[in-house]
Amino acid sequence: MYLKDCLVCFFIIISSYISIYCQTTSELLESGIVKFNNSDLKGSIIDLTKAIEMDSNMAEAYYYRAYSKFILLNYKGAILDYNKVIELNPLWKVPYFNRGYVKSKLSMYLEAIADYNISIALDSSYADAYYSRATSNFQLNNYNESIIDFTKVISLAPENKDAFYNRGCAKDKLKNHDEAILDFKKVIEIDPQYSMAYNNIGVAKNSLNDFAGSIPFFNFAIELDPQYSMAYCNRGIAKYKLNEIKSAVIDYNSAIEIDPTYLDAYYNRGVAKHDLNDFNKALEDFETIIKLDSLHFDALYYIGLIQYKLEDFDKAFNYISKAIEIKDNDEASYIIRGNVYTQQKKYSLAILDCNKAIEINPNSGLAYHNRGIAKYLLGDKNGGCKEIRKSLELGYTNAKMLIKEICQ
Q: What is the pLDDT of residue 183?
């Protein structure tokens, strides 16, 4: 779940009396503002630039040219113009706010926060500045700071549904799921058509393992927005957790139909197909993910796992090894590759991978079990049985049968 991306920046347009130093300069400035308001941004920039050439101290001209450049996605040019506005009028709160917003578009969140701080210092009731500072802190994973600012926005504008929504998102990131749900419910109270709030209540309930309770909220979200691919995917997760795997697949299908690039939906459907022993269809999903993201660890892992189950050990080795290159601290990957080595009769290598799995998780009963098998197959019966008994002590109950067969 992500912070709502459609954050609206309400730039404040100042309509103040402009002293006329030169009629031509004044006319150019006025023409630039008119063209700006009529969305003729390039024309506006031309007129404003001419005005600036005639009078380089016209803060308003730099201001509107900066705003035009921002809309045209010339962020660096906009920042330069806002710098000039601030130089000419350092007590004007709006240019600091706007420059901060532009910086946030360039992912310069710390620099953006510095600008919002100045805006707030100039006007302690500047709700937009608190809101935007909150979103920048959210992007930096500073969720507590984000919550403080969203709370301030709510105190200044109690009906600001987006502030409640995003504060809920921050609380959810901190695993305060119950509190997050309260914020999302407040959003719905303000705007019953806010589909993302219903979805996020469902996500929070999933996090609380209330899967049955989450499904009605995903239903509401989908009813409000039938193209809401994330709600279908999240409802699929809830159904999967309730062991309604075939029904979950249907939801993942819907999510992918809406968004053919939705990697999480392909991944979740692949896992479901794997659990249904439909290995070929599962492979199709994981291979689709790899085409879209060649470094997707989980997809590589599952392809390796399935190839191992299909007894194509060479392919299993290749994919699991690629997964380990990406993430070298995953216990399960070393266990699977160790199994591959055992099947290939490379018992010493299998032991090395089991060693790595145990290093990552010293309580891995399965790793001890598999290392015991490898040692046994190398002719070290005593050492092997010691490992297998250790696995039973750690709770790996499948070791009981093997102990009876080879360790009596």
A: 98
Q: Which residues contact 40 (CB under 8 A, 6 or more apart)?
A: none
pLDDT digits (tens, 9 = 90+) for 70-110: 999 999 999 999 999 999 999 999 999 999 999 999 999 99
* DSSP category for residue 5: S
Task: Count the Cβ atoms, other than its own, within 10 Å of residue 5.
Answer: 6
The tokens of 294 are what? Answer: 């060649």
What CATH homologous superfamily does 244-249+256-326 map to? Answer: Tetratricopeptide repeat domain (1.25.40.10)
Please state the domain extents for the chain: 244-249+256-326, 329-408
Same fold across 244-249+256-326 and 329-408: yes
Q: What pTM was computed for the model?
A: 0.86
What would you measure as the largest C-alpha separation in the chain, in angstroms? 105
End-to-end CA distance of the chain: 53
How far apart CA 43 and CA 48 sit, in angstroms, is 9
Dihedral sign for Cα atoms in the order 93, 94, 97, 102:
negative
Closest by alpha carbon to 267, among 241, 239, 236? 236
Interatomic CA distance for residues 132 and 148, integer angstroms:
12
What token pair was written down for 333?
A: 């990957």
Residue given tokens 């055992």 in the structure block: 342
- Show the tokens assigned to 176: 């305060």
The CATH code belonging to domain 329-408 is 1.25.40.10
Query: Given this model, what pLDDT does residue 408 score?
Result: 81
Cα distance between residue 148 and residue 296, in whole Å: 35
Give the C-alpha separation, 195 to 81, whole Å: 39
Q: Within 10 A of 182 (CB to CB), how many other CB atoms are there?
A: 15
